[in-house]
Amino acid sequence: MAVHLLYFAWVREAIGRDGETIDLPGKVDTVAALVRWLAARGGGYAEALAEPARLRCAVDQSFASLATPIAGAREIALFPPVTGG
Amino acid sequence: MAVHLLYFAWVREAIGRDGETIDLPGKVDTVAALVRWLAARGGGYAEALAEPARLRCAVDQSFASLATPIAGAREIALFPPVTGG
Amino acid sequence: MSARISVQEADFDVASELARLEALGGGGVASFTGVVRGGDGLEALRLEAYPGMTQAALEEIAAEAQRRWPLVGLTLIHRHGTLPVGERIVLVGAASRHRMAALEACAFLIDWTKTRAPLWKQELFAGGSTRWVEPRPEDDVAAAAWDSSAEHGRP
Amino acid sequence: MSARISVQEADFDVASELARLEALGGGGVASFTGVVRGGDGLEALRLEAYPGMTQAALEEIAAEAQRRWPLVGLTLIHRHGTLPVGERIVLVGAASRHRMAALEACAFLIDWTKTRAPLWKQELFAGGSTRWVEPRPEDDVAAAAWDSSAEHGRP
Fold it and tell me: 0.90 exceeded by the pTM?
């Protein structure tokens, strides 16, 4: 399935791009699985996603957890804890 | 002793003036005694000062209680509870 | 600490007052503005002050806020005279490095101003009738709660 | 209830934003403004937003404030982009008949904006170095305290 990925803050900087559209294998069925799958690409991905506990995510623009299923998701964002305000 | 009296809000309205300078007899030695002494004048004074519990006061521009001594005071103000803000 | 305390008839400029607090560099600026609220035929409030004492009382309240919170700046402006519906009555402002300090200081400043500054409100109604505002027990409760609170923090 | 929520690069006009809240007739208007604070060679903050989601997240936070307090109006404006020291970052405002409702709603709005809106701060220092701001545990504590609080009232 094709899904749009978005990266923010130091996740974006380490990966070196602010997003991409990819085809995910069906076995990548949660955010955590996506993070592992992306990290396996190595390079900036491995660096950005080495510690999943430091990551936060949103699925279709709603905050989600690493355990959230992503079947049918159109947009998944990975980012650090928020620091606005 | 000569003391300057000030009246505010409905105390001022009932008495019909915003202040006056008077010579107080020595036996009028607290705010409560002053209130009784003024009320005995009758008319607007009696009306304004009939219920001392509804009154607040300041002696020389510091909040005081009815029991506060007034010997040596130069300015005594009588008024209702404050309602600013 | 930069404090600006004023009792005045004239309106104040909220923008320039808050800009002054922003420029102090604390990073957080909180404010509360009280405005004459209409209803029941009210046309205006008349605010009576005690010349000489009101300013000093507000300065004491401001000094107490400075003791309780780490403020870099503070503003307390109270108007007197006749204020039609929609006119501003009072502005309190506080600047701090800590947002809760700024917000709590504003709550404290308005609570104590309502109950510890010599100011009296009279309501002026359409048709000419008037009524002196009665003190509200909940205002006394709010003000007294700061007495029992610790150095910092909302009671 | 009149809510104005905006995520924008441009500065906002505090005076006109607060005037809008005053004009709603509630009588009490509270605000909090966050400004870029200097120190340690900081030249600017860069605020990164999530286009599409940040606005919606702020609207949800505002809706929650409306459920918790009797507000007649509310404002939540957050800037993104590069903001030099002294620039405003965020404005929250609330109007209510009850001064504590207005002040508490502001505290809530800023606490939740800091911890529940997709926004990230990067510090830009003289000399060109940069640092992503780490979340502060005390901000999470402040935001979570509103979860355990009753419908109203500061935790």
Answer: yes
